[in-house]
Amino acid sequence: MPVALFVPCYIDQFYPDVAVATLELLERLGLDVVFPEAQTCCGQPMANTGCVSETAPVARRMVEIFADYDAVICPSGSCTAMIRHHYAEYFTEDSAQYQKVASRTFELCEYLHDVLQLTRLNVTFPHRVSLHQSCHGLRELRLGGSSESMTPRVDKVREILKLVEGIEWCIPQRSDECCGFGGTFAVNEPDVSAAMGRDRITDHLATGSHVMASADMSCLMHLQGLIRREDHPITVMHVAQILVGRPVVRPASHANPPAPHSNPSETIR
Amino acid sequence: MKLPIVDHPTAARPFVTNPKRSQWHDKALWFVRSKRDKQAGGVSEWEHLRELASKIKTHTVANLADYLVQFEQAATRLGATVHWAADAAEHNEIVLKILKRHETLRIVKSKSMLTEECHLNHFLENNGIEVVDTDLGERIVQLRDETPSHIVLPAIHIKKEEVGETFHQHLGTDEGASDPKYLTEAARQHLRNKFLMGEVGITGVNFGIAETGGLVVCTNEGNADLGVSLPKVHIACMGIEKLIPRFQDLSVFTRLLARSATGQPITTYTSHFHGPRDPDSELHIILVDNGRTRLRGNAEFRDSLNCIRCGACMNTCPVYRRSGGHSYHATVPGPIGSVLSPTRDAKSYKSLPYACSLCGSCTDVCPVKIPLHHQLLAWRKELVGRGLLPVSKRVSMRLASMLFQRPRLFAIAGKCGRTALRVLPHWMTHNRLNTWTIARELPNPPRESFREWYGRNRNED
Ligand code: SF4
Q: What residue segments make up the domains of chain B, in order of their start?
């Protein structure tokens, strides 16, 4: 029975390599992975705006599309949390399809850690890395302990990354403060959102990190937007890309836009 | 009273776009939050205490009527006079009546968010009574004719140099002085005189104990004790949600309150008042509803009545720390304020539930486990349901929903969008009409979406 790959809409459109890396990783681990092409988005932008009636049809079709798989794997904590914790109101309690999808949808690292119980990975990533914890991964999915909570929890994203050889860890001072993306928040509150993002970047830069890694590309999209605008010497990468050993690619800053039709490829070190 | 509509992003702009001020404010509050973490971490049963506190409060609110009656009877037995106020106006009238009966012209008041909520100061001043806030932070705010920007640290938005200026103006301290020790001493001398002249003392209440009819007030400056020890009359203003059932429940809350609020194991003073202190004195307790019963009737937001006003959700909120308390235009700012304010006036405060990135830090920090960020999300649904979302936003969400229900159209729209981003000049895609790009770049659009790549590389048929 194949597992399904759920690729969040913005990853599909803007960060296809994150999805390719996820797919390659799962295939390397021997899984039979299918990408159901009718999928689009989990509905979070509408749900987080409060638009219930706009979310409902999107949620229902997502569940239908993924109902036949043993597991649904998603390289985003936020979108996984949406399906697992915020779909209930769009289904009747006894909907077997919904129950199944909600309980069988996993964030990528969570799947590797809890289901596959991965203990080895033949990958090297010889770089200075700092981890940006996504709020929804942490406080909705509990992929690790949040700094507010005194309940000890295993940090699943870091545990999985620890299987990669060569990482030199850099630890920011504020271990899990929000980056300020927050979906539509980023455009509703542009000033506060940007201020929050800048503070995260400053914190990560101060550690000497070269690569800011996260299991949520949406946070990184926002942070990368600031990094490129302000031309900071740090690169963002999704955890999946590190787990398959992708090289570190520094996208061109706003000041030095890429030559048309060429792939930006300035590699650090 | 019709309130103006608060637009949080606009109200926050002057503060957040002043990096010096907003970063300083952020660091000051983060320091408090870190102290809280250390203290909470030192109590091995911390999470158990939170759970217990949440259950006690939920139980109390569920049985509020019974506990209120029990409290009134017990307090009366102790010799206190219990008053009931349906709203702010009634509360203020009751206070004024007591003051008039005693022919009082001066009162000293320790910190009370309830009297802020009722705008008691202005009401009394308009009636010719001098009100002196004796909490240092509140006094600073009062002298500057401002409102508190935080419920525990009312003057957290004011720098010590600015305090120096205010004190120079009002208390005659040296010009340019900003040494906190010097300024505090000056305030102490100034307040001491006021304490001596105060004829009636007003305090807030942290906990009312139904079983005993006693009150508990927590302060760090001892100003509540001092304020009610000299005068013969003590008026305690208390929201009806401040009750706890039994004396033995108190320790659960005192252990949580100061640790959550300021990262102290306990407040310097935890003052218990059980009836008037002697036969010549009076203790008046005013039980204030002011919308609380209505909130209690609302299953979605009822939990917000459990709040013990520790302020931890403000200290931890990344939006609050960077936008300052005044940007909420409400007595209670921050996450809990953004839940409470729309319950008073949804239209005026409709932007507050959106002043939140849904990071969930407040929910994890709250000592009584109010699911704050889920309540803010619930508010958004409520606002949309009441037709209070701007039309432009509603339309864009409708369009998005349509698109997401049509994968082919979604793929085509995505391709068009990415192509446009690639071929259009930078200034056309990055300008002030596009809010995303005011501070940030858009992602470099790839030539191929994942689904296109997948179609080429994995679909054999
Ligand atoms: S909501 Fe919770 S954290 Fe916020 S002030 Fe109330 S008790 Fe404290």
A: 43-290, 406-457
CA distances from B145 to B142, B165, B282 (A): 5, 14, 31
Instruction: Give the position, in ligand 1's atom list, of the atom nearest the Cα of B309.
Output: 5
What tokens does B43 get?
């109590």
The fourth-level CATH superfamily of domain B43-290 is NagB/RpiA/CoA transferase-like (3.40.50.10420)
Q: Which domain holds residue A82?
A: 3-115
pLDDT tens digits in sequence order for chain B, 461 residues long = 567 889 999 999 999 999 999 999 999 999 999 999 999 999 999 999 999 999 999 999 999 999 999 999 999 999 999 999 999 999 999 999 999 999 999 999 998 999 999 999 999 999 999 999 999 999 999 999 999 999 999 999 999 999 999 999 999 999 999 999 999 999 999 998 888 888 899 999 999 999 999 999 999 988 888 888 889 999 999 999 999 999 999 999 999 999 999 999 999 999 999 999 999 999 999 999 999 999 999 999 999 999 999 999 999 999 999 999 999 999 999 999 999 999 999 999 999 999 999 999 999 999 999 999 999 999 999 999 999 999 999 999 999 999 999 999 999 999 999 998 888 888 888 887 788 998 999 999 999 999 999 999 987 65
Q: Which residues of B touch A188 (CB under 8 A)?
A: 9, 354
- B322:A51 CB<8 A: no
- Give distance in angstroms: CA of B261 to centre of ligand 1: 9
**Measured between alpha carbons, how far is residue B184 from residues B44, B139, B178, B189, B412 in Å?**
36, 11, 10, 9, 66
Q: Which helix (H) or strand (E) holds B269?
A: strand B269-273
A269 within a domain of the structure (yes/no) = no
Q: What is the pTM of this model?
A: 0.95
Same domain, yes or no, for A30 and A57?
yes
> Among B354, B363, B397, whose Cβ lies nearest the Cβ of A54?
B397
ipTM of the modeled complex = 0.94
Residue A111: DSSP 8-state: I
A56 and A138 in a common domain: no
Cβ contact, residue pair A135, B359, below 8 Å: yes
